[in-house]
Amino acid sequence: MATNKSCAVIGSGLFGIQAVREFTRRGNTVDWYSSDPEPGGIWQPMPWGKTRESTELVNPGWCIAPEFRGKPTVTVQEFRALLKSWSDERTDLQRRRFLTRVDSVVEYESHVCVTTPDSETPYAFVVVATGHYGAPRIPDEWAGDNCCHASSLQDLSRIQPHQSVLVIGGGQSGVEICEEIIEDRPDIRLSWCTGRTVKLITRHSPLAMLGTCVRYSTRGEAPRGFVITKSPSTVVAHCTIVPTRALHVDGGRVEFSDGSVQKFDHIIAATGYAAPVGLDFPAPNPARTKGMRLSPRSRIASLNHDGDGCGGASMRCARKQAVAAARLFADRGDPKKSPA
């Protein structure tokens, strides 16, 4: 049976790293589960991660990390190195169970049971920080070998010169893929299906800094009505922007919401990701900390909970939720303090 001081963190992305960091800072030994080989979550290099090497993060300092205060932008390589340094702070108090799939997390009256293919382990407290990026989200009706998700696009070698390419997805990933194609393969005929009218702004715009850090959406809507690019004029000059939705894709044939039909040699879906499945997490009661939810007996804390959370690079949210979860665990067993 679980002891009052046994705890586990599931997930090794930004929120999982911050949770382990806060728990071990308080002297707790943490069982750390992840299906990945290393900490980093979506920020790892592909195929384990989902972030392109060309990604740059807008950085007002308070948003990404105080270590980068004064830098207008932060490369994904710099952010990746910072996450690694945090995850390695107290390895003596970490029992890493990486490359391990968690099949279920079930709460009982006296403990939480974490089940993997090899074991069932009871804990007094569990943090679920698996995020919303478990699998590509490509509609089932899409067919054809020339359709791929952005997370599987390692390079552009499969695309021949002068072929036509359609990037579907009006968010940040979509425009970054367009920028990469324009920079590396200017001979490709490129179209970008945004599904809406977008305003292209630069990374150094005050609006970009505010929007990236404050209004990043976790419900699938686009953040405001703009997309951040390195050079708006370059994207407009070299890319045909299609402000309609792709209704149906069959091979290279694409039907759009405005009634038009076009054919493309390659289709790249930057359409987001589906949330991980298999975690039995009942969470009807919101916690006091925005973005975090608690299970009915307050033995499971879900960080950056789908629909309640904040942006993937929002350090303030990750730190605040991790601190709240660590305090909840510390308060367990203290009759003078009740769970949030």
Automatic annotation (TrEMBL):
The keyword Signal does not apply. The lineage of its organism: Bacteria, Bacillati, Actinomycetota, Actinomycetes, Kitasatosporales. InterPro entries: FAD/NAD-bd_sf (IPR036188), FMO-like (IPR050346). It comes from the Bacteria. PANTHER family: DIMETHYLANILINE MONOOXYGENASE (PTHR23023). It comes from Streptomyces macrolidinus. This is NAD(P)-binding domain-containing protein. Keywords: FAD, Flavoprotein, Oxidoreductase.
